[in-house]
Amino acid sequence: MIGSASIPRFSLLDRDHSILAFNERVMDWARRPDVPELERLRYLSIVSSNLDEFFEVRMAPQLAAAKAHETRGLYTAQTFEALSAKVHELVAQQYAIYNDELLPALEKKGIKIVAHSERNARQRRHVREIFHNEVQPLLMPVGLDPAHPFPQVANKSLNFIVRLTGKDAFGRENEIAIVKVPRILPRFFRLPSVKGSRQIHFVSISSLIRTHLGDLFPGRQVTEFSQFRVTRHSDLAVDEEEVKNLRTALRKGLQQRHYGQALRLEVSAGASTFLSDFLLEQFGLPEACLYRVPGPVNLVRLNQLIDKVDAPELRFEPYLPGWPLQLTPGQSFFERLRQGDVLIHQPYESFDAVLSFLREAVEDPDVLAIKQTIYRTGAKSELMDLLREAVRRGKEVTAVVELKARFDEEANINYAERLESVGAQVVYGVVGLKTHAKMLLITRREAEGLRRYAHLSTGNYNPGTARVYTDLSTLTADEALTADVDQVFLHLASQNRLARLNKALIAPFLLHKAMLDKVAAAGEAAARGQDARITLKMNALTDEPLARALASASQQGVKIDLIVRGACVLPAGVPGFTDNVRVRSVIGRLLEHSRVYHFRVGGEEEVWLASADWMNRNMLRRVELAWPVTDPALRQRIVDECLNAYLHDTRDAWLLQPDGRYVPAGQGASGRQRHHLQSAQASLMARHGGKG
């Protein structure tokens, strides 16, 4: 392995700016005229959701550095200013698309969000009835005075600030009031359409309340108002070494998550300086944290409007995944796996096969034990019901539940308690590490003795996301690999030293060093004149040692192709450093999520699947699993479907430039040429599935 001292130093790209660049690529789908209008609106809401999480997780150290006027280190006042400027630019683009492109496009298709000035008399009566019957009873305006200080405002909640004239019931001139909007209220209400019109009309909750704010303050006049929303730091920090019960500690932490440090304040574009300054002071935020938006302060909630519209022509055509190519419906999974491994490419092939595999194990009297990791499974999980049923049928069930899966903590705590209530063995992995490996192990009594069967995946056991995330699953009865999986479960439950594994690589013990070694070996081979190629597909590449190792291998002559959906800190094509590195990001209808590591050195080829991205946290602070694909046919299929297809994508792919910019792979294509651009996702959907 090449020592770090011999790896040339050059500037990697900034991770936070790379995350924002990813969101620009997602937002491009909201602009695309070939995308149905409601789907364009959904992409815009996805960007808002991503930005929310960006602030909740990434911005606290930046803001702290700005407040402390830091000039050195990773986070400084200058990095905060540069990042804030970029976010402001991104948000301005969002609302320009929303107001100038999407709202007019939707109106042409018969869907309109009707402003107060545009409502006819019938609609105004309807809005008044909704307000008085469904909304006002749930609103509690709070007038601010020494006995009523500024109220606690929950993370990402919708609120109004109001300035009043006149005196209250006690003769005092308290001029500021706050109105919280309960999350339980719908964000959009259907309105009666204009007679003879086929348009579908809606009113937003913010417009509805704004119209009737005066009704909340009888005897006083509203002179100014603004909707507002504050985003808070929401990454739970629990000292696992100190707490006696992680589950209890996390439950307490969840109660405080909604009231963490304020990081961003969104207000209406027309909010007065008086109101915005008042709010900034209340939340202790500098001017750079203020976002004036010409529209709803929460574009994430546009999903509610999308769900209320019954217009199939404004959505993507439904896609029905095919049954996995290697499986025959009705055939026993155990019988099939004794013949060889099975690969499932989701969502082109149905995730239902994985549930069927578990269901057969639950119902089979010869299955003695089931072990599974649980990271994200969705709000309502058939998988959880199957595990509970397995316990009721007398099987030994062990669940490794990751309580610290970000924003899924509460659901996972509830699942853990439900499993324990029926007698399952529930463990929470290793102190200080998240268990991110996706593993299911089944032990069955057969004529020859006990035999293991496993399912390993690059993605979560979540049927909902399995319909829109691209992932790879391996079903196997390979004795060496299933023995490895059993050892990992034993390690997680017992905390004993991990035994030597046969085939698999596990983080944080082996994976990082193994990948560095493989990159170095490719570089050394290229330096000797051998053909060497590395192709990697993942969600993010932000680990500095791995990025620099790839740069070093590039200088030695290794041809490197990186298919990285999100943040990538390794710039492509930097003269003298990454001349042989190409980086592309594919943003499509589906969310790219599979992790594939491909090394070809001389005549030797390796293909690995993994749960891990090449990020420091995945390599050193999580339990992750990577496993080799040894079947030549399956290996070639992965190369064809997950690597080559994406390397030839010209419709949904973006190419990273040396300066960190991304340009569309099909940039410059004329209208006729765009018709012939290649989409890896569209091709795979056509090959494997059907249309609903």
UniProtKB/TrEMBL annotation:
<dbReference type="InterPro" id="IPR036832">
    <property type="entry name" value="PPK_N_dom_sf"/>
</dbReference>
<dbReference type="InterPro" id="IPR025198">
    <property type="entry name" value="PPK_N_dom"/>
</dbReference>
<dbReference type="InterPro" id="IPR036830">
    <property type="entry name" value="PP_kinase_middle_dom_sf"/>
</dbReference>
<dbReference type="InterPro" id="IPR003414">
    <property type="entry name" value="PP_kinase"/>
</dbReference>
<comment type="similarity">
    <text>Belongs to the polyphosphate kinase 1 (PPK1) family.</text>
</comment>
<dbReference type="Pfam" id="PF13090">
    <property type="entry name" value="PP_kinase_C"/>
</dbReference>
<comment type="function">
    <text>Catalyzes the reversible transfer of the terminal phosphate of ATP to form a long-chain polyphosphate (polyP).</text>
</comment>
<feature type="binding site">
    <location>
        <position position="376"/>
    </location>
    <ligand>
        <name>Mg(2+)</name>
    </ligand>
</feature>
<feature type="binding site">
    <location>
        <position position="50"/>
    </location>
    <ligand>
        <name>ATP</name>
    </ligand>
</feature>
<feature type="binding site">
    <location>
        <position position="565"/>
    </location>
    <ligand>
        <name>ATP</name>
    </ligand>
</feature>
<dbReference type="GO" id="GO:0005524">
    <property type="term" value="F:ATP binding"/>
</dbReference>
<dbReference type="GO" id="GO:0006799">
    <property type="term" value="P:polyphosphate biosynthetic process"/>
</dbReference>
<keyword id="KW-0460">Magnesium</keyword>
<feature type="binding site">
    <location>
        <position position="469"/>
    </location>
    <ligand>
        <name>ATP</name>
    </ligand>
</feature>
<feature type="binding site">
    <location>
        <position position="406"/>
    </location>
    <ligand>
        <name>Mg(2+)</name>
    </ligand>
</feature>
<dbReference type="GO" id="GO:0009358">
    <property type="term" value="C:polyphosphate kinase complex"/>
</dbReference>
<protein>
    <recommendedName>
        <fullName>Polyphosphate kinase</fullName>
        <ecNumber>2.7.4.1</ecNumber>
    </recommendedName>
</protein>
<feature type="binding site">
    <location>
        <position position="593"/>
    </location>
    <ligand>
        <name>ATP</name>
    </ligand>
</feature>
<keyword id="KW-0808">Transferase</keyword>
<feature type="domain" description="Polyphosphate kinase middle">
    <location>
        <begin position="123"/>
        <end position="305"/>
    </location>
</feature>
<dbReference type="GO" id="GO:0008976">
    <property type="term" value="F:polyphosphate kinase activity"/>
</dbReference>
<feature type="domain" description="Polyphosphate kinase N-terminal">
    <location>
        <begin position="13"/>
        <end position="114"/>
    </location>
</feature>
<keyword id="KW-0597">Phosphoprotein</keyword>
<feature type="active site" description="Phosphohistidine intermediate">
    <location>
        <position position="436"/>
    </location>
</feature>
<keyword id="KW-0418">Kinase</keyword>
<feature type="domain" description="Polyphosphate kinase C-terminal">
    <location>
        <begin position="333"/>
        <end position="496"/>
    </location>
</feature>
<dbReference type="InterPro" id="IPR025200">
    <property type="entry name" value="PPK_C_dom2"/>
</dbReference>
<keyword id="KW-0067">ATP-binding</keyword>
<dbReference type="Pfam" id="PF02503">
    <property type="entry name" value="PP_kinase"/>
</dbReference>
<dbReference type="GO" id="GO:0046872">
    <property type="term" value="F:metal ion binding"/>
</dbReference>
<feature type="domain" description="Polyphosphate kinase C-terminal">
    <location>
        <begin position="505"/>
        <end position="666"/>
    </location>
</feature>
<dbReference type="Pfam" id="PF17941">
    <property type="entry name" value="PP_kinase_C_1"/>
</dbReference>
<keyword id="KW-0479">Metal-binding</keyword>
<dbReference type="Pfam" id="PF13089">
    <property type="entry name" value="PP_kinase_N"/>
</dbReference>
<dbReference type="InterPro" id="IPR041108">
    <property type="entry name" value="PP_kinase_C_1"/>
</dbReference>
<keyword id="KW-0547">Nucleotide-binding</keyword>
<dbReference type="InterPro" id="IPR024953">
    <property type="entry name" value="PP_kinase_middle"/>
</dbReference>
